[in-house]
Amino acid sequence: MRSAMFGRAAGRRGAALLSALLCLVVAVPGVARADNPIVQTIYTADPAPLVHDGRVYLYTGHDEDGSTYFTMREWRVWSSADMVNWTDHGSPMSLATFSWASADAWAGHTVYRNGRFYWYVPVVNRATGRMAIGVGVSESPTGPFRDALGRPLVENGEIDPAVFVDDNGQAYLYWGNPNLWYVRLNTDMVSFSGGPTQIPLTAAGFGARSGNASRPTLYEEAPWVYKRNGLYYNVFAAECCSEFIGYSTAPGPTGPWTYRGTVMPRQGASFTNHAAVIDFNGGSYFFYHNGALPGGGGFTRSVAVERFTYNSDGTIPTINMTATGAPQVGTLNPYVRQEAETIAWANGVETEPASGGGMNVGWIENGDWIRVKGVAFGAGAASFTATVASGTSGGRIELRLGGTNGTLVGTCEVPGTGGWQTWTTVTCPTGGATGTHDLYLRFGGGSGYLFNLDRWQFQQR
Ligand code: FUB
User: Fold this and answer.
1) Average pLDDT of the residues in 421-444
2) By alpha-carbon position, which residue is closest to atom 5 of ligand 1?
């Protein structure tokens, strides 16, 4: 996966800029630091979170580096139990999954039903040249996903599928730009009853837009439909360009909709936005995208998240983009195996598929670092173990608390192992790691790429 944002030559410029942006804050121990956007190793777009078994699985698109259009060839999955440390699960679905698709791996949505995960995505149908909606299916939230049908589920040249399953089991697929459509899905989730139906785009339902006779309402694209306390919500991208996020509510899943106003104003250096709303562990979360990473913009976007509280009447407050993001839910346990690609903030590194499954952190150079937030050491750690590989002569992992120059609680030397996927385990003693801290894995060594890191774990005193 050497095409990531901070890949080899060009990527170093991005990494240097990101370092420069961050050093102002990381140099001061104890100062809160940006956690948005969620992913720093690649550009991500079009968030679609799913809560399952105590974790949030975040399905995204992937804007290619240097893209000057919505150049997107694969989808990505991340997950978190605490909303700040996100595990990279790589790309379990791409255009190649759909033999009939030729381009545009755009905004999708994943739902769980019948023991399976169904991922609805818009892609170009090679045979017709039109946007169509396909369905990936997997028994695991992290895939791999396969084509459920071998053909589009539905095709009318419009995009941005979103699925809502009502309490009575009836599922609805919504999608559309410039129109807004729905169809009733059967319980198999890959067929439907009746035909696609247009939701009337009225000013009362979706707000009035002026100066655009062909698009008389604010509705643009990206519907996200859910139900809360008996009220149905449709949160959508409004009035391109640039887009803001608006929402409507209804007494039923098909309307009639009433426009309720702005959720997120036009902000954030991307002319599109794309929202998703979930509840997790007692909090409500609003996902969106912007152009906040170095090199970011309308075609190089990044997914971010904010926590919010509904107003007492059920309306959604105005939510602004922040660099701080959502607070951590709980802590991270360092005494169980942690994947190296579980990251609150990454500086200079990338990820790639590991030979033994999952992902590893790679492209590590002298001075790069990873922040893992809210690590609960308790009474103290005695040692640290990491699974590493190096096709050169290795380097070292400095374990620091609170900042890249924070208290050094251990240093692990990493040897050359004869290959970037030739894994070995290194262990080093640690001292002074007690209580709960942000852990910085700071990498050091000579020039060039030093080593890869697959996983790590502390041992208790
Ligand atoms: O990412 C490609 C397109 O941009 C999505 O399908 C739209 O929602 C907009 O975010």
Assistant:
1) 98
2) 107
Mean pLDDT of the chain: 93
- At CA 124, angle to CA 118 and CA 128, rounded to 5? 120
What does the pLDDT read at residue 34? 67
Neighbouring residues of 180: CB distance < 8 A, sequence distance ≥ 6: 174, 198, 199, 201, 206, 219, 223, 236
97 secondary structure, DSSP code: G
Name the residue of 44, 159, 240, 242 to mutate for ligand 1: max ligand atoms within 8 A of Cβ.
Answer: 159
- Contact (CB, 8 A) for 450 and 364: yes
Q: Whose CA is nearest to atom 4 of ligand 1?
A: 272
Mean pLDDT of 226-245: 98
Amino acid at 167: D
Q: What is the rounded CA–CA span in Å between residue 305 and residue 324?
A: 9
Q: How many residues does the chain have?
A: 461
Measured CA to CA, the distance from residue 339 to residue 376 in angstroms comes to 16
Confidence of residue 23 (pLDDT cuts 50, 70, 90): very low
CA distances, 229 to each of 177, 232, 310, 315 (Å): 28, 8, 11, 11
**Ligand 1 pocket, residues with Cβ under 6 angstroms:** 45-46, 61, 70, 106-107, 159-160, 221-222, 237, 272, 274
Q: What is the pTM of this model?
A: 0.94
Quote the CA–CA distance of 437 and 441 in Å, as a whole number. Answer: 12
From start to end of 302-432, where are the E strands?
Answer: 302-308, 338-339, 342-343, 345-347, 350-353, 359-362, 369-376, 381-390, 395-401, 407-414, 419-429
Task: Please choose, from the candidates 231, 222, 276, the residue with its C-alpha nearest in 3D space to the C-alpha of residue 257.
Answer: 231
Pairing verdict, β 55-63 and 72-80:
antiparallel
Q: What is the whole-number distance in angstroms between the Cα of residue 64 and the centre of ligand 1? A: 14
Both structure tokens of 116: 């399976």
Task: Please list the active-site residues.
Answer: 46, 220
Question: Measured between alpha carbons, how far is 121 from 131 in angstroms, rounded to an integer?
Answer: 10
Cα distance between residue 458 and residue 375, in whole Å: 11
- Which strand (E) or helix (H) includes residue 17? helix 8-26
Amino acid present at 293: L
Residue with tokens 């139906």: 197
Ligand 1, from 46, 240, 301: best to mutate by most atoms within 8 Å of Cβ? 46
